[in-house]
C-alpha cells in the first residue's frame, strides 16, 4: 500500500470531549490534537477512560464537546477494538475477514477484483500469514487472529488507524512483526493512535503520548509526558475518581 498525501491541519482535534455513563464520568474535558502522520500512544491506569476515548472518536458512545476530523471521514478511519470485543465463532475464513477492509470500495453487492484479491494476498504476506487465506478464523491462535485483523487494516488503506490494546496477550515475535506494520504505516504518512500499557513499548515506538486518567494529565512528546511525576498523578487521580460525581470531577 502506498503513501497518502499529507493532510492540512490536525488529523483529529478534540474540544472539551466528555463522556459519562449515568452519573459516572468516564472522560471529562479532553482537549488536544493528533497531528497528521503522528504516532501517538494513549497511556494511563486501568479503567481510566482510554478505550472510552477511542469509542468516542469512532462515534460508538455518546459524548459532549466536539471531535473534528479535518479532511478525514469517520467511516474512513481504520479501527481495531480490543480482541475481547470480537466474536470469533462466526464461520468465515481468514480471506473473508481481510476482505472486509475493502467493503467500502466494493459496495454491498460488489465482487472482488483481481487487484483486490492481490491486495488481500499481499496483506497476509505482510503480516506473516501467506497461504493461510482459506483457514477458518476459529482455528487460529490469538496471535494469528490479530495478524489477520492487521491485514484487514492494510487492505482498508485508511489515513488514520486507531488501535485499542493491539498487543495484549501476544507473543514477542507477533508483537515485533505487528510493530513493523505500524512503522510502515508511519513511514507512509498515516496517523496512528494506540492504547498501550507497556511503557517500554511506548518509549520505543511512539514519539507522542496522551497520558489519560479520565482527564488529560499530559499530552505531548513521550519523554516529557511519561515522567514519574505525571505517572504518579495519573495513578492518584484514577484511584480517587470513583468517588467523584460529575460536577466534582469537572471541578478537580
Map the helices and strands:
Blueprint: E1 12-21, E2 24-34, E3 39-43, H1 50-57, E4 64-68, E5 77-80, H2 94-99, H3 103-106, H4 114-126, H5 142-156, E6 160-164, H6 172-187, E7 191-195, H7 199-205, E8 208-212, E9 216-221, H8 222-225, H9 228-241, H10 246-251
Parallel strand pairs: 3-7, 3-8, 5-6, 6-7
Antiparallel strand pairs: 1-2, 1-4, 8-9
End-to-end Cα distance, whole Å, is 46 Å
The CATH topology name of the domain at 1-72 and 206-252 reads Rossmann fold
Taking the sheet with the most strands, its summary is:
6 strands, mixed
Gyration radius over CA: 19 Å
Q: Which term fits the overall shape?
A: globular
Unreliable stretches (pLDDT < 50, length at least 5) are: 1-9
Quickly name the level 1 CATH class of the domain at 1-72 and 206-252. Answer: Alpha Beta
What does this entry look like structurally?
The protein has 252 residues and is α/β, with parallel strands linked by helices. Helices cover 37% and strands 22% of the residues. It contains 10 helices and 9 strands. Helix 4 packs across helix 5 (142-156). The radius of gyration is 19 Å and the shape is globular. The chain has a domain at 1-72 and 206-252: P-loop containing nucleotide triphosphate hydrolases (Rossmann fold, 3-Layer(aba) Sandwich). The chain has helices at 50-57, 94-99, 103-106, 114-126, 142-156, 172-187, 199-205, 222-225, 228-241, 246-251; strands spanning 12-21, 24-34, 39-43, 64-68, 77-80, 160-164, 191-195, 208-212, 216-221. The longest helix is centred in the last third of the chain and has 16 residues, at 172-187.
